[in-house]
Amino acid sequence: LVVVIDYGAQYAQLIARRVREARVFSEIMPHTAPVEQVLARKPKAIILSGGPSSVYADGAPQVDAAMFAGGVPVFGICYGFQAMAKALGGEVAHTGGSEFGRTALRVDDHGRLLAGLADELKVWMSHGDSVVAAPDGFAALAGTAGAPIAAFEDLDRGLAGVQWHPEVLHSESGQQVMEHFLFDVAGCTPTWTAANIVEEQVALVREQVGDKRVICALSGGVDSAVAAALVQRAIGDQLTCVFVDHGLLRKGEAEQVERDFVAVTGVDLKVVDASKQFLDALAGVTDPERKRKIIGAEFISCFDAAAAEIVQAGHGDVEFLVQGTLYPDVVESGGGEGAANIKSHHNVGGLPEDLQFKLIEPLRTLFKDEVRAVGEQLGLPHAMVWRHPFPGPGLGIRIIGEVTAERLDILREADAIVRAETTAAGVDGDIWQFPVVLLADVRSVGVQGDGRTYGHPIVLRPVTSEDAMTADWGRLPYDLLERLSSAVTNGVREVNRVVLDITSKPPGTIEWE
Ligand code: XMP
């Protein structure tokens, strides 16, 4: 374990991910955690992250010198570098040489931290203060125009630091610097692999569950599928999965869950075909938020009923519920132990609080890319593991207007054509998500063959994004757009127009509703 101490900037998660990319497990702790608590975790190394303050500002978080006395290697980054220098008797000053963004770094002495790297590196900086004198025992390694000492190391004590952000992709050789610290200074071993994660989680789930029964709601999405497959690997037929088919999925997705997922995992799957129930409940509804509420409520009632049936079928009491909570949710909701504050897993519509189950969250230490690696390790189908995000209310919020069976068929067909073409063009990895939207209440005149048509438009909404909070419209090649347009209008009789959405988020959202 490597502990990343979060000094309040947005970089701690990125650092933790880079450490894991080096196959070393890492977790984030807040800078308010007492040193004894950090050391009690018995970390192989500690990394101090960047932060927004100046080390001399009133109330700026300091590093307790005890952090460096426990014999655990420590790496300071940016603010953490300065805080380390100050705590050990070095000097940090406001030199007036603030540097933000790409900065030229001069390496004077490669030492172990920068061994084998170029003598000049472009690195990503964000600092006002600078270290002007290294603490005793440290060798200064590099500098920039604004930071006389931009890297140092003390190999006897396993301490090192850099002023720049090696975790940021714009920093040249950034990952190498991280790895030099982890392996050559701190002596970590790279054992955090998908195979080991699976083995460890399987053991933990077995221990937690004992001989009790467990249920899991599958949504068709990546997280619930991987969580279920892991738990299945651990406890076999003590797990029952419930898949509520609300009839709002894309073409082939329900079959994929029913057939491929079961074939690979051997899971005991209860499929609830509730499409009629959902359609009836949605009849006449056009308001997006009402659609969401109705879909959420129907989902809960179906899931509840399925859970009750499982109990009645004589399987005994169901004691645990599997949730696909991920590590970023845990960190953002305050981290720590227990499941308090975790935002409800909205893929499954938000399960009700009065479902009295204990939670099993086998993904709560993982980032999304690790979830995918675990999914592949468990042998889940590639198409399931690499699925783009898809909203819980499904196609229900991609039909602008009332949701009906006919309209769902039109959209499902158009969407399937778009997916097949984009996958064939090899651009799935370049886009975050690609909603295909039916403007069901809009009609326009067209001409097909000799006849006049009066059909519906389909909107293509490819977007790029890092986290769905902001997004840009995806610049797909013109020839692909042309193929999409003719394939959809040729393939779906009711559609006579295809339009491209070129709105970023903000001001638009990714979905139309
Ligand atoms: P927006 O449209 O708000 O979408 O830019 C951001 C991300 O959230 C997804 N989304 C939802 N997911 N239930 C979900 O499970 C919902 O009601 C919902 N609405 C939007 C959307 O697909 C995108 O990834």
UniProtKB/TrEMBL annotation:
<protein>
    <recommendedName>
        <fullName>GMP synthase [glutamine-hydrolyzing]</fullName>
        <ecNumber>6.3.5.2</ecNumber>
    </recommendedName>
</protein>
<comment type="subunit">
    <text>Homodimer.</text>
</comment>
<comment type="pathway">
    <text>Purine metabolism; GMP biosynthesis; GMP from XMP (L-Gln route): step 1/1.</text>
</comment>
<feature type="active site">
    <location>
        <position position="167"/>
    </location>
</feature>
<feature type="domain" description="GMPS ATP-PPase">
    <location>
        <begin position="192"/>
        <end position="387"/>
    </location>
</feature>
<keyword id="KW-0547">Nucleotide-binding</keyword>
<keyword id="KW-0658">Purine biosynthesis</keyword>
<dbReference type="Pfam" id="PF00117">
    <property type="entry name" value="GATase"/>
</dbReference>
<dbReference type="InterPro" id="IPR025777">
    <property type="entry name" value="GMPS_ATP_PPase_dom"/>
</dbReference>
<dbReference type="Pfam" id="PF00958">
    <property type="entry name" value="GMP_synt_C"/>
</dbReference>
<feature type="active site" description="Nucleophile">
    <location>
        <position position="78"/>
    </location>
</feature>
<keyword id="KW-0315">Glutamine amidotransferase</keyword>
<feature type="binding site">
    <location>
        <begin position="219"/>
        <end position="225"/>
    </location>
    <ligand>
        <name>ATP</name>
    </ligand>
</feature>
<dbReference type="InterPro" id="IPR014729">
    <property type="entry name" value="Rossmann-like_a/b/a_fold"/>
</dbReference>
<dbReference type="GO" id="GO:0005524">
    <property type="term" value="F:ATP binding"/>
</dbReference>
<dbReference type="InterPro" id="IPR029062">
    <property type="entry name" value="Class_I_gatase-like"/>
</dbReference>
<keyword id="KW-0436">Ligase</keyword>
<dbReference type="InterPro" id="IPR001674">
    <property type="entry name" value="GMP_synth_C"/>
</dbReference>
<dbReference type="InterPro" id="IPR022955">
    <property type="entry name" value="GMP_synthase"/>
</dbReference>
<comment type="function">
    <text>Catalyzes the synthesis of GMP from XMP.</text>
</comment>
<keyword id="KW-0067">ATP-binding</keyword>
<feature type="active site">
    <location>
        <position position="165"/>
    </location>
</feature>
<dbReference type="GO" id="GO:0003921">
    <property type="term" value="F:GMP synthase activity"/>
</dbReference>
<dbReference type="InterPro" id="IPR017926">
    <property type="entry name" value="GATASE"/>
</dbReference>
<dbReference type="InterPro" id="IPR022310">
    <property type="entry name" value="NAD/GMP_synthase"/>
</dbReference>
<dbReference type="GO" id="GO:0005829">
    <property type="term" value="C:cytosol"/>
</dbReference>
<keyword id="KW-0332">GMP biosynthesis</keyword>
<dbReference type="InterPro" id="IPR004739">
    <property type="entry name" value="GMP_synth_GATase"/>
</dbReference>
<dbReference type="Pfam" id="PF02540">
    <property type="entry name" value="NAD_synthase"/>
</dbReference>
